[in-house]
Structures are given as structure tokens and as C-alpha cells.
Amino acid sequence: MKISIIIPVYNSTLYLKQCVESILAQTYHNFEILLVDDGSTDDSPMLCDEYAQKDDRIVTIHKQNGGTSDARNVGLEKASGDYITFMDNDDYWSDPDALCDIIKVISETEPDVVMHANMVYWQDKNRTVNPSSFDRTLVSGKKRKEAVENLIKAGMLSVTVWTKLVKTSLIREHDLYFKKGIRNEDTDWIARMLIYAERFEWYDKPFYVYRKGHETAQTSQKMKYYMVNDLKNIIIEYTQYAEKYLDQEYRKVFYAYLAYPFAVWMGQAYLIEQNEQIKNDREIMKKYAYLLTYDINPAVHLVHRVYRILGFGLTSRILMLYIKKVYYS
Q: Nearest-CA neighbor of 8 among 42, 47, 32, 40?
């Protein structure tokens, strides 16, 4: 069984070596690494080529800069593995046995999607934060509704694509490519994945290390209106889809997934300069506040409690302060 790892690369000379070497150190060898150089202006293209020359499991693709979604899509088109996962070019894997163990999980149940948690490495503080544990039996062999519901209840269904291994046939059959030109492409892509995937699995040993607290990280960038607008469009599109196409029981679980990005949208809308457009968006936002009632996610449950006591405006401001402290301080 072959695994494809897609890595969009953009100006990552500082971290690319650790990223790639952590995959090459895997004890399971049937994989391919697709390094998609997205128009880098530093030495990253040369590093990618050097790796491709040294190891025939590494494929380097050079393209004009088009953003993360575009780079991932190029990787998806070229991928030849049975399952596909993603990696950011400044992250790394900490366990050399991770792929070997994941293959065992896949072989047992042949799921559409394998999910796992991640560690967070705060580079500016030189500190690693480990995730909470989660019982695999709450997902393995369960029907879709129960599996996804249990993940959300435990706060373990993250809006990151690099904590997912997805069957290539599912991606190809349902055209699961990334929307170009949006900031919240992971949230959007996972919503579509949840619509089409039927069988889920969980791998319970954290190995993916997400690097934060450095100047090239996306969370170091100032919030702009288009970023907030992306979340608005995602919420509107997928609530409407769920109302029309999903059965009543799974729709509730799907709304519970959307409730978290909705809460993020509430807070982010106060992080940018206030204008008439933002004021209009807040009126739209209030129409979708019912998503907070689907509060099986512990974080959303807390937001919902505050919302019931303090109302929309104050809750949004509290969320804004929280986001500002966690991501921008």
C-alpha cells in the first residue's frame, strides 16, 4: 500500500530539510513525497531538486506562485498512492514508525479517512504541547454519524487537512480538490470530505508536529477582510447544502462541525477595521447563530453558554480578544 505526502513549498529553506528528512526516516518505505514548489524566490527550488535526485520516491514540481490550494491541487493530480495526506513545509513528523503503524490500521478496516491528532511546537518559546488522548474504539467500525459525532464531542475533529489520510479513490470520485484563492481552504475541504466519506478510523499516537510562533507562519499575518469573508461563504454554502441534501440525523452532526468555524467567524469579524460591509456581515452572522445550539464540541459549548448570557455583541468581542491573544500576541 502506497502513501502520497503532498507538501506545498514556498520559501522554506529554514525548515524544509527537517520536514523532508522526518518522512525519509520512516521505517515504512512505500511512499512518495510530492514537493510542489509554488514559485519560491529563495533556495527552496534547489533543495527540492536535490532531494528528488537523491531519492526516486521524491517528486519535485515547479510552478508559478498560486497559493497553497493551487499547489495542493497540482500534488493531487500527480499523486499515485492509495491514500493521500498533506504536510506544511515548516512542520515535521516526530515518530519514524508512524506510517508503519498507520498502514496496520488501514489494513484492518480499509477506511475512507484516517484521522490523527498533532503536537504543537511553539518555536519562539521552544515548547511542545501534546494533544489529548482519544479512544480509537469510538471511531473504528462505527457508522458515519456516530464516528464523526464522537470526534466532535471529544474536540478531536480538527480543521486541518494534515491530520487526515484520505483514500485516493474518494478524492478522485468526488473531485475533492481545494478551492483556489481562499484563506480557509482546510475548513472548506474538510466539510466536503465529511459529506462524502463513510468509513473513518483513528490513529492514536501523535506524530505530526505543527510549528507555530515564527514569522513565516500564516497566523503571524494580519487579519484581512477577505479572510473573514471566506468563513462567511463557507458557513452559508454548507448550511444550505446540509439543509437540502443531508439526512436529518447526520445534518445535526454536520452543523456541529460548522459551529466551530462559525464561532471563529464571530471573533475574526471584530479583528479587522469596522466598516459598512462588516456591519452588514454581522447581520448575516446573526441569522446563522443557531449553529451554536449544536454545541457538542466542548469549545463551542462554552461559547454557546457565554452567548446565552451576554448576547451576540459581547460574545463576539470576547472571541476577538481570545483569538488576538492566542494567535497574534
A: 40
Cell of residue 217, nine digits: 507562519
C-alpha 90/C-alpha 68 separation (Å) is 13
In angstroms, the CA 74 to CA 271 distance is 33
Instruction: Report the Cα–Cα distance between both ends of the chain, in Å, rounded.
Output: 43
Cα–Cα distance between 104 and 280 in angstroms, integer? 51
pLDDT in tens, 92-119: 999 999 999 999 999 999 999 999 999 9
b/e per residue 23-56 (b: at least 16 CB within 10 A): beebebeebbbbbbbbbbeeebbebbeebbeeee
Q: Which of 233, 238, 103, 82 is nearest to 169 (CA)?
A: 82
DSSP string, 131-186: PPP--GGGTTT--HHHHHHHHHHTT---S-GGGEEEEHHHHHHTT-PPPTT-S-HH
At 32, the amino acid letter reads E
- The pLDDT, as a whole number, for residue 325 is 83
Going by the DSSP 8-state scheme, the letter that residue 87 receives in this structure is: -
CA angle (23, 6, 4) in 5-degree steps: 70
For the question of whether the overall pTM of this predicted structure is more than 0.90, the answer is: yes
**All structural domains of the chain with their residue ranges:** 3-218, 222-328
Q: How far apart are CA 303 and CA 310, in angstroms?
A: 10
Q: Is residue 213 very low, low, confident or very high in pLDDT (cuts 50, 70, 90)?
A: confident
CATH number of 3-218: 3.90.550.10
Among residues 38, 33, 115, which one has the least CA distance to residue 79? Answer: 33
How many angstroms separate the CA atoms of 175 and 168, rounded? Answer: 10
